[in-house]
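hey can u check if this looks right to u? its 244 residues, i copy pasted from the old doc so theres a chance i mangled smth
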Amino acid sequence: MSHRFFVPAEQIIANNVKLTGSDVSHIRTVLRLKAGASIQVINGLGQLLTVRLVRVKVKEIQGEIIASEKFNVESPLAIHLGLALTKGSKFNTTLRASVELGVSSITPLTTDRCVIKKNLAKTKIERWKKIILESSKQCGRAKVPVMTDDIEPLEVFCRHNDDRDIKLVFWENEANSSLKNLKFDQLPCSVAVLIGPEGGFSLDEINLARKYGFQTLKVGPRIIRAETAPIVVLALLQSVWGDL
């Protein structure tokens, strides 16, 4: 099986493909591929390209497309996840699982009860983006989920996702409503989801989210840990409206 790489569409002109950044080092020094070797390229537009390497330079690799096929394993449901910061390696684990479960975008959030502070977590954004890219390759995604360039407050996420078909916040103090209670005339195409930190969302934050049209839901009868909740929620959403 050929090695796969994500290449932005703007780096593909006609039949010519340009690879830059860490992919160059990986191809040259890890895989030790030379001109004439073939790789597979995912362009984020629903195509899987077979590319023959033409020039392998220190900072840039050029190739030519020799075959193309349709490639789309993305869910019909675009899930935009607002994920509160969690401590230790929990956040990394959640990112990997979220990619595997088909999330479209991830926004790290700072909330009232976050244990890790924004100024400390901000240095990790590039690492988180790398985890998302690596996870996308590992699970065979056709697109790399988008992560914001900054850690956002709750209200900013709510405002930026105001136009989603559904807006949900999962809250341990919600007594009645659950996902199975929701009824819609037509299948939703997009959903914004809020998941809190270890201590959950404060009541002020819940009221803020409600002001932007978010519905509070319970996950189930038991308390679910912060790192487990996103996995459960994404699987449920994909099962009901997505592709699981």
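The radius of gyration is 20 Å.
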